Protein backbone atom coordinates (compact mmCIF):
# COMPACT_ATOMS: atom_id res chain seq x y z
CA UNK A 1 0.00 0.00 0.00
CA UNK A 2 1.34 3.38 -0.97
CA UNK A 3 1.47 5.60 2.09
CA UNK A 4 0.55 8.63 0.03
CA UNK A 5 -2.73 6.99 -0.96
CA UNK A 6 -3.77 6.82 2.70
CA UNK A 7 -3.19 10.57 3.13
CA UNK A 8 -4.77 13.60 1.58
CA UNK A 9 -2.92 14.01 -1.73
CA UNK A 10 -2.80 17.81 -1.68
CA UNK A 11 -1.63 17.89 1.93
CA UNK A 12 1.00 15.22 1.24
CA UNK A 13 2.21 17.10 -1.82
CA UNK A 14 2.59 20.20 0.34
CA UNK A 15 4.76 18.24 2.75
CA UNK A 16 7.00 17.16 -0.12
CA UNK A 17 7.35 20.75 -1.31
CA UNK A 18 8.28 21.79 2.19
CA UNK A 19 11.04 19.16 2.30
CA UNK A 20 12.43 20.50 -0.97
CA UNK A 21 12.99 23.91 0.62
CA UNK A 22 14.61 23.08 3.96
CA UNK A 23 15.52 25.76 6.46
CA UNK A 24 19.27 25.53 6.95
CA UNK A 25 19.02 27.17 10.35
CA UNK A 26 16.50 24.57 11.49
CA UNK A 27 18.63 21.85 9.89
CA UNK A 28 21.73 22.94 11.81
CA UNK A 29 19.72 23.15 15.02
CA UNK A 30 18.26 19.69 14.43
CA UNK A 31 21.71 18.16 13.89
CA UNK A 32 22.99 19.92 17.01
CA UNK A 33 20.09 18.54 19.05
CA UNK A 34 20.61 15.04 17.66
CA UNK A 35 24.27 15.03 18.66
CA UNK A 36 23.41 16.66 21.97
CA UNK A 37 20.93 13.89 22.81
CA UNK A 38 23.54 11.25 22.13
CA UNK A 39 26.29 13.02 24.08
CA UNK A 40 24.00 13.84 27.01
CA UNK A 41 23.36 10.18 27.82
CA UNK A 42 27.02 9.14 27.70
CA UNK A 43 27.83 10.48 31.22
CA UNK A 44 24.99 8.38 32.64
CA UNK A 45 26.15 5.25 30.84
CA UNK A 46 29.73 5.87 31.96
CA UNK A 47 28.79 6.56 35.60
CA UNK A 48 26.92 3.27 35.98
CA UNK A 49 29.77 1.32 34.39
CA UNK A 50 32.50 3.18 36.31
CA UNK A 51 30.79 2.70 39.68
CA UNK A 52 29.94 -0.89 38.82
CA UNK A 53 26.45 -0.47 40.25
CA UNK A 54 23.11 1.10 39.40
CA UNK A 55 22.49 1.93 43.07
CA UNK A 56 20.54 5.13 43.52
CA UNK A 57 18.52 4.73 40.30
CA UNK A 58 14.87 3.90 40.91
CA UNK A 59 13.56 0.87 38.97
CA UNK A 60 10.28 2.70 38.48
CA UNK A 61 12.14 5.66 36.99
CA UNK A 62 13.69 3.26 34.49
CA UNK A 63 10.33 1.59 33.80
CA UNK A 64 8.44 4.83 33.23
CA UNK A 65 11.28 6.38 31.22
CA UNK A 66 11.61 3.41 28.88
CA UNK A 67 7.87 3.03 28.26
CA UNK A 68 7.53 6.80 27.81
CA UNK A 69 10.34 6.76 25.25
CA UNK A 70 8.73 3.86 23.41
CA UNK A 71 5.41 5.69 23.23
CA UNK A 72 7.11 8.89 22.06
CA UNK A 73 9.04 7.07 19.33
CA UNK A 74 5.95 5.21 18.13
CA UNK A 75 3.99 8.46 18.25
CA UNK A 76 6.27 10.32 15.87
CA UNK A 77 6.49 7.30 13.57
CA UNK A 78 2.73 7.04 13.05
CA UNK A 79 1.96 10.78 12.90
CA UNK A 80 0.46 11.69 9.51
CA UNK A 81 3.15 14.37 9.04
CA UNK A 82 5.92 11.85 9.67
CA UNK A 83 4.38 9.25 7.38
CA UNK A 84 4.06 11.87 4.65
CA UNK A 85 7.71 12.86 5.10
CA UNK A 86 8.79 9.23 4.80
CA UNK A 87 6.69 8.82 1.65
CA UNK A 88 8.20 11.99 0.16
CA UNK A 89 11.65 10.40 0.28
CA UNK A 90 10.65 8.65 -2.96
CA UNK A 91 10.43 11.96 -4.80
CA UNK A 92 12.96 14.26 -3.10
CA UNK A 93 16.75 14.09 -2.95
CA UNK A 94 18.63 12.08 -0.33
CA UNK A 95 19.80 15.25 1.41
CA UNK A 96 16.25 16.63 1.59
CA UNK A 97 14.97 13.29 2.85
CA UNK A 98 17.56 13.08 5.63
CA UNK A 99 16.92 16.70 6.61
CA UNK A 100 13.19 16.04 6.79
CA UNK A 101 13.55 12.93 8.96
CA UNK A 102 15.87 14.40 11.57
CA UNK A 103 12.95 14.89 13.95
CA UNK A 104 12.22 11.16 13.84
CA UNK A 105 15.91 10.40 14.29
CA UNK A 106 16.08 12.58 17.40
CA UNK A 107 13.27 10.74 19.15
CA UNK A 108 14.70 7.40 18.03
CA UNK A 109 18.15 8.19 19.45
CA UNK A 110 16.59 9.31 22.71
CA UNK A 111 14.64 6.04 22.96
CA UNK A 112 17.75 4.00 22.16
CA UNK A 113 19.91 5.78 24.75
CA UNK A 114 17.35 5.30 27.51
CA UNK A 115 17.04 1.65 26.54
CA UNK A 116 20.79 1.37 27.12
CA UNK A 117 20.20 2.74 30.63
CA UNK A 118 17.64 -0.02 31.14
CA UNK A 119 20.18 -2.65 30.07
CA UNK A 120 22.93 -1.20 32.29
CA UNK A 121 20.49 -0.91 35.19
CA UNK A 122 19.75 -4.62 34.86
CA UNK A 123 23.36 -5.73 34.35
CA UNK A 124 24.79 -3.69 37.24
CA UNK A 125 21.85 -4.01 39.59
CA UNK A 126 23.09 -4.41 43.20
CA UNK A 127 21.89 -7.84 44.28
CA UNK A 128 22.27 -7.27 48.02
CA UNK A 129 21.67 -3.54 48.47
CA UNK A 130 18.58 -1.46 49.13
CA UNK A 131 17.57 2.15 49.38
CA UNK A 132 17.60 3.36 52.97
CA UNK A 133 14.58 5.18 54.29
CA UNK A 134 15.79 7.23 57.28
CA UNK A 135 12.27 8.25 58.32
CA UNK A 136 11.02 4.68 58.58
CA UNK A 137 14.27 3.47 60.13
CA UNK A 138 14.44 0.55 57.73
CA UNK A 139 15.53 -0.35 54.24
CA UNK A 140 13.31 -0.49 51.19
CA UNK A 141 14.71 -3.37 49.16
CA UNK A 142 14.56 -3.36 45.37
CA UNK A 143 15.38 -6.96 44.64
CA UNK A 144 16.80 -8.61 41.55
CA UNK A 145 13.29 -9.83 40.82
CA UNK A 146 12.13 -6.20 40.70
CA UNK A 147 14.80 -5.36 38.12
CA UNK A 148 13.93 -8.36 35.95
CA UNK A 149 10.22 -7.55 36.17
CA UNK A 150 10.90 -3.98 35.02
CA UNK A 151 12.87 -5.23 32.01
CA UNK A 152 10.17 -7.78 31.15
CA UNK A 153 7.37 -5.21 31.31
CA UNK A 154 9.36 -2.82 29.09
CA UNK A 155 9.88 -5.59 26.55
CA UNK A 156 6.19 -6.55 26.50
CA UNK A 157 5.16 -2.91 26.18
CA UNK A 158 7.51 -2.38 23.24
CA UNK A 159 6.29 -5.47 21.40
CA UNK A 160 2.63 -4.57 21.98
CA UNK A 161 3.20 -1.04 20.68
CA UNK A 162 4.93 -2.32 17.54
CA UNK A 163 2.24 -4.90 16.79
CA UNK A 164 -0.67 -2.49 17.27
CA UNK A 165 1.00 0.21 15.17
CA UNK A 166 1.78 -2.23 12.36
CA UNK A 167 -1.74 -3.68 12.40
CA UNK A 168 -3.35 -0.24 12.17
CA UNK A 169 -0.96 0.87 9.40
CA UNK A 170 -1.83 -2.19 7.31
CA UNK A 171 -5.57 -2.51 7.92
CA UNK A 172 -6.90 0.72 9.48
CA UNK A 173 -4.60 3.59 8.42
CA UNK A 174 -7.31 6.21 9.05
CA UNK A 175 -7.07 5.36 12.78
CA UNK A 176 -3.37 6.12 12.95
CA UNK A 177 -3.95 9.78 13.80
CA UNK A 178 -6.02 8.86 16.86
CA UNK A 179 -3.47 6.16 17.79
CA UNK A 180 -0.66 8.71 17.52
CA UNK A 181 -2.49 11.08 19.86
CA UNK A 182 -3.10 8.22 22.31
CA UNK A 183 0.59 7.35 22.24
CA UNK A 184 1.52 10.99 22.71
CA UNK A 185 -0.82 11.38 25.68
CA UNK A 186 0.54 8.16 27.19
CA UNK A 187 4.12 9.34 26.69
CA UNK A 188 3.30 12.69 28.32
CA UNK A 189 1.63 11.07 31.33
CA UNK A 190 4.47 8.57 31.78
CA UNK A 191 7.06 11.34 31.42
CA UNK A 192 5.14 13.49 33.91
CA UNK A 193 5.32 10.81 36.61
CA UNK A 194 8.66 9.36 35.50
CA UNK A 195 10.71 11.57 37.79
CA UNK A 196 8.43 11.25 40.82
CA UNK A 197 9.86 7.91 42.08
CA UNK A 198 13.40 9.06 41.27
CA UNK A 199 12.94 12.35 43.11
CA UNK A 200 11.49 10.46 46.09
CA UNK A 201 14.34 7.92 46.09
CA UNK A 202 17.08 10.55 45.74
CA UNK A 203 15.52 12.63 48.51
CA UNK A 204 15.43 9.68 50.91
CA UNK A 205 18.93 8.50 50.01
CA UNK A 206 20.38 11.97 50.47
CA UNK A 207 22.71 11.52 47.49
CA UNK A 208 22.47 10.92 43.74
CA UNK A 209 24.15 7.49 43.73
CA UNK A 210 24.69 6.38 40.13
CA UNK A 211 22.49 9.13 38.74
CA UNK A 212 24.58 11.46 36.55
CA UNK A 213 24.41 15.19 37.25
CA UNK A 214 26.31 16.08 34.02
CA UNK A 215 23.61 14.23 32.07
CA UNK A 216 20.88 16.32 33.70
CA UNK A 217 22.88 19.52 33.23
CA UNK A 218 22.86 18.88 29.49
CA UNK A 219 19.37 17.47 29.17
CA UNK A 220 17.38 19.96 31.26
CA UNK A 221 17.96 22.99 29.01
CA UNK A 222 18.17 20.68 26.01
CA UNK A 223 14.63 19.43 26.62
CA UNK A 224 13.23 22.94 26.18
CA UNK A 225 15.28 23.55 23.03
CA UNK A 226 14.25 20.17 21.62
CA UNK A 227 10.59 20.82 22.41
CA UNK A 228 10.74 24.16 20.60
CA UNK A 229 12.45 22.57 17.59
CA UNK A 230 9.81 19.84 17.29
CA UNK A 231 7.03 22.40 17.74
CA UNK A 232 8.46 24.44 14.86
CA UNK A 233 8.67 21.32 12.68
CA UNK A 234 5.33 19.67 13.54
CA UNK A 235 3.22 22.69 14.44
CA UNK A 236 0.50 22.90 17.04
CA UNK A 237 -1.05 19.65 15.82
CA UNK A 238 2.10 17.85 16.96
CA UNK A 239 1.58 18.91 20.59
CA UNK A 240 1.48 15.28 21.68
CA UNK A 241 5.09 14.91 20.51
CA UNK A 242 6.85 18.08 21.70
CA UNK A 243 4.74 18.35 24.87
CA UNK A 244 6.48 15.26 26.24
CA UNK A 245 9.87 16.96 26.34
CA UNK A 246 8.46 20.17 27.79
CA UNK A 247 7.08 18.27 30.79
CA UNK A 248 10.25 16.18 31.09
CA UNK A 249 12.46 19.27 31.17
CA UNK A 250 10.52 20.81 34.06
CA UNK A 251 10.63 17.66 36.22
CA UNK A 252 14.24 16.89 35.39
CA UNK A 253 15.14 20.40 36.44
CA UNK A 254 13.66 19.73 39.90
CA UNK A 255 15.74 16.55 40.22
CA UNK A 256 18.84 18.40 39.02
CA UNK A 257 18.49 21.11 41.68
CA UNK A 258 18.06 18.45 44.37
CA UNK A 259 21.08 16.50 43.15
CA UNK A 260 23.30 19.59 43.08
CA UNK A 261 22.24 20.49 46.62
CA UNK A 262 23.15 17.01 47.87
CA UNK A 263 26.49 17.06 46.08
CA UNK A 264 27.38 20.46 47.51
CA UNK A 265 26.37 19.29 50.98
CA UNK A 266 28.47 16.12 50.63
CA UNK A 267 31.54 18.08 49.55
CA UNK A 268 31.18 20.49 52.46
CA UNK A 269 30.85 17.58 54.89
CA UNK A 270 33.92 15.97 53.36
CA UNK A 271 35.95 19.14 53.81
CA UNK A 272 34.61 19.48 57.34
CA UNK A 273 35.64 15.93 58.25
CA UNK A 274 39.12 16.41 56.84
CA UNK A 275 39.53 19.71 58.69
CA UNK A 276 38.20 18.47 62.03
CA UNK A 277 40.46 15.41 62.38
CA UNK A 278 43.49 16.40 64.51
CA UNK A 279 46.85 14.80 63.94
CA UNK A 280 48.65 16.38 66.88
CA UNK A 281 49.58 15.84 70.52
CA UNK A 282 46.97 16.56 73.16
CA UNK A 283 48.09 16.93 76.78
CA UNK A 284 45.32 16.62 79.32
CA UNK A 285 46.80 14.30 81.91
CA UNK A 286 47.92 11.99 79.10
CA UNK A 287 49.87 12.32 75.89
CA UNK A 288 48.49 10.55 72.85
CA UNK A 289 49.35 10.92 69.20
CA UNK A 290 46.95 8.65 67.33
CA UNK A 291 47.10 8.55 63.57
CA UNK A 292 43.58 8.78 62.20
CA UNK A 293 42.92 8.17 58.53
CA UNK A 294 39.53 9.30 57.33
CA UNK A 295 38.29 9.08 53.78
CA UNK A 296 34.92 9.96 52.38
CA UNK A 297 32.99 8.32 49.63
CA UNK A 298 31.10 10.06 46.84
CA UNK A 299 28.11 10.59 49.08
CA UNK A 300 30.07 12.21 51.93
CA UNK A 301 30.03 9.22 54.26
CA UNK A 302 33.11 8.50 56.31
CA UNK A 303 35.26 5.43 55.70
CA UNK A 304 37.29 5.00 58.87
CA UNK A 305 40.56 3.21 59.38
CA UNK A 306 41.99 1.96 62.67
CA UNK A 307 38.51 2.17 64.22
CA UNK A 308 38.78 5.92 64.82
CA UNK A 309 36.60 8.75 63.60
CA UNK A 310 36.37 12.40 64.39
CA UNK A 311 33.86 11.48 67.10
CA UNK A 312 36.31 9.09 68.85
CA UNK A 313 37.35 10.66 72.19
CA UNK A 314 40.96 11.75 72.33
CA UNK A 315 41.19 10.32 75.88
CA UNK A 316 40.25 6.72 75.19
CA UNK A 317 41.10 4.49 78.11
CA UNK A 318 41.05 1.37 75.97
CA UNK A 319 44.03 2.49 73.86
CA UNK A 320 46.78 2.23 76.47
CA UNK A 321 49.41 1.55 73.87
CA UNK A 322 49.01 5.03 72.41
CA UNK A 323 49.38 7.09 75.54
CA UNK A 324 52.04 7.92 78.14
CA UNK A 325 51.31 9.07 81.68
CA UNK A 326 52.94 12.34 82.65
CA UNK A 327 55.14 12.41 85.70
CA UNK A 328 54.87 15.47 87.85
CA UNK A 329 57.25 16.83 90.31
From TrEMBL:
<feature type="transmembrane region" description="Helical">
    <location>
        <begin position="24"/>
        <end position="42"/>
    </location>
</feature>
<feature type="compositionally biased region" description="Polar residues">
    <location>
        <begin position="309"/>
        <end position="321"/>
    </location>
</feature>
<feature type="transmembrane region" description="Helical">
    <location>
        <begin position="101"/>
        <end position="125"/>
    </location>
</feature>
<feature type="region of interest" description="Disordered">
    <location>
        <begin position="295"/>
        <end position="329"/>
    </location>
</feature>
<dbReference type="GO" id="GO:0016020">
    <property type="term" value="C:membrane"/>
</dbReference>
<feature type="transmembrane region" description="Helical">
    <location>
        <begin position="208"/>
        <end position="227"/>
    </location>
</feature>
<dbReference type="InterPro" id="IPR006603">
    <property type="entry name" value="PQ-loop_rpt"/>
</dbReference>
<dbReference type="InterPro" id="IPR051415">
    <property type="entry name" value="LAAT-1"/>
</dbReference>
<keyword id="KW-0472">Membrane</keyword>
<keyword id="KW-1133">Transmembrane helix</keyword>
<feature type="transmembrane region" description="Helical">
    <location>
        <begin position="176"/>
        <end position="196"/>
    </location>
</feature>
<feature type="transmembrane region" description="Helical">
    <location>
        <begin position="239"/>
        <end position="262"/>
    </location>
</feature>
<feature type="transmembrane region" description="Helical">
    <location>
        <begin position="62"/>
        <end position="81"/>
    </location>
</feature>
<dbReference type="Pfam" id="PF04193">
    <property type="entry name" value="PQ-loop"/>
</dbReference>
<keyword id="KW-0812">Transmembrane</keyword>
<feature type="transmembrane region" description="Helical">
    <location>
        <begin position="146"/>
        <end position="170"/>
    </location>
</feature>
<protein>
    <recommendedName>
        <fullName>PQ loop repeat protein</fullName>
    </recommendedName>
</protein>
Amino acid sequence: MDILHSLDSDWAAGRCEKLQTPSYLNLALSIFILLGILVSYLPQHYRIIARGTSEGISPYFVLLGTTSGTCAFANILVLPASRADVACCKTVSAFECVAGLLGIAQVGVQWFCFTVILILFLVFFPRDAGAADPEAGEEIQYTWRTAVTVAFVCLLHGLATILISAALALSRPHYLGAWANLLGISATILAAIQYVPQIWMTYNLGHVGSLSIPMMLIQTPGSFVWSASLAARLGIEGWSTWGVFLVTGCLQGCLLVMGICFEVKARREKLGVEGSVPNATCIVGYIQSPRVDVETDDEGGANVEDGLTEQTPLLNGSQKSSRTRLSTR
